[in-house]
UniProtKB/TrEMBL annotation:
PROSITE patterns: D_2_HYDROXYACID_DH_1, D_2_HYDROXYACID_DH_3. GO terms for molecular function: D-lactate dehydrogenase (NAD+) activity. Keywords: NAD, Oxidoreductase. Belongs to the D-isomer specific 2-hydroxyacid dehydrogenase family. Pfam families: 2-Hacid_dh (PF00389), 2-Hacid_dh_C (PF02826). PANTHER family: 2-HYDROXYACID DEHYDROGENASE HOMOLOG 1-RELATED. It comes from Streptacidiphilus alkalitolerans. Transmembrane segments: none annotated. InterPro entries: D-isomer_2_OHA_DH_cat_dom, D-isomer_DH_CS, D-isomer_DH_CS1, D-isomer_DH_NAD-bd, D-LDH-like, NAD(P)-bd_dom_sf. It comes from the Bacteria. Residues 8-326 form the D-isomer specific 2-hydroxyacid dehydrogenase catalytic domain. Its EC number is 1.1.1.28. Residues 110-296 form the D-isomer specific 2-hydroxyacid dehydrogenase NAD-binding domain. This is 2-hydroxyacid dehydrogenase.
Length: 331
């Protein structure tokens, strides 16, 4: 079977081709799936997409009309897929329910440390042979109060690293994680966590209840010198409110690997274009803000696991099986 894979990064392509070799033919495209690119899938019963695909009702109908019967998403998140319409059209949908949580947790700490110690500013200076220390003072992580919002697999890994630094641990989630409790985490109301934490890291999924979980009110509760890290989903943070908080001198640092309006921006080279997103452009002007391009998951270990699971999902579809990754089963 020939499978069409959308949104394949250059470093990801050889891994996909190697995993699928001898089992299925796979054709990799750099373009992301949306209404404009959906017609390219005509004649392909199975397609694979990335988290930045836009599988709205229009795109799904084009896919179904072209003969697509299965969508294998190469990510844990699936808020970009209109599942109700997909089910109506008889499309099977699967995701990757699990991959290395260390990849994201470690990168969240990379952001936190880089922001705290002003690494970006320091690196830019030293490239110009400016070795002054002005404006580069950070704080010890040891002894900080670290708030972890979402203590699932990734949040737990982030907590273990925080414990290694010697921090006080606060957590917030719908259910308490016994492993985090063993590390000394105290679960508190969200308001208390925000008010007492020196560093807050987000590890919850994007759901209607968590959209703009960190809004203007939440930001106002945080310490003026606190660090905020988001390596989960952009929609968890009200970016306009974040800009206003930074404009007022609130927050000591922000590390973002995701952005709520990242579709159409992240994973592309826009360096020669005028970026019309005023909110993102303003955010980038703050010296204590570090934005990366949704790369927290991007390790060879995690990507390899994602591809292996995607291949298993395709095989399950062809065999008529379901698994924990199945969002809409084959009819």
């Amino acid at each position: 079977m020939e499978i069409l894979a959308y949104g394949v990064q250059a470093d990801e392509k050889p891994l996909i081709e190697k995993a699928f070799a001898g089992r299925h033919d796979v054709h990799c495209l750099e373009v992301f799936l949306n209404t404009d690119t959906a017609p390219l899938a005509a004649g392909h019963e199975v397609i694979s997409t990335s988290v930045n695909a836009s599988l709205d009702a229009s795109a799904l109908r084009i896919l179904a009309a072209g003969g697509t019967r299965m969508i294998a998403q190469r990510s844990t998140g699936f808020n970009n897929i209109d599942l109700a319409v997909a089910e109506e059209l008889g499309l099977t949908v699967a995701r990757v329910s699990y991959y290395s949580p260390y990849a994201v947790a470690e990168f969240a700490w990379t952001l936190a440390l880089a922001v705290n110690r002003r690494i970006t500013r320091a690196a830019l200076r030293t490239r110009e042979f400016d070795f002054r220390l002005d404006g580069l003072m950070g704080r010890d992580i040891h002894g900080m109060t670290v708030g972890v919002i979402g203590t699932g697999k990734i949040g737990e890994c982030f907590t273990r690293i925080a414990h290694g630094f010697g921090t006080r641990l606060l957590g917030w989630d719908v259910a308490q994680n016994p492993a985090c409790l063993e590390l000394g985490m105290e679960y508190t109301p969200l308001e208390q966590l925000l008010a007492e934490s020196d560093l807050v890291s987000l590890h919850v999924p994007l759901l209607p209840d968590t959209h703009h979980l960190v809004d203007g009110s939440a930001l106002g509760r945080m310490k003026r010198d606190a660090i905020l890290v988001n390596s989960s989903r952009g929609g968890l943070v009200d970016t306009a409110a974040l800009v206003e908080a930074l404009r007022s001198g609130h927050l000591g640092g922000v590390g973002l690997d995701v952005y709520e309006e990242e579709t159409g921006l992240f994973f592309f080279d826009r360096s020669l274009e005028v970026v019309t997103d005023d909110t993102l452009a303003r955010l980038m002007t703050f010296p204590q803000v570090l934005v990366t391009s949704h790369q927290a998951y991007f390790t060879s270990t995690a990507v390899g696991q994602i591809i292996d699971t995607t291949l298993a999902n395709v095989d399950d579809f062809l065999a008529g099986r379901t698994s924990e990754n199945t969002l809409i089963p084959r009819k």
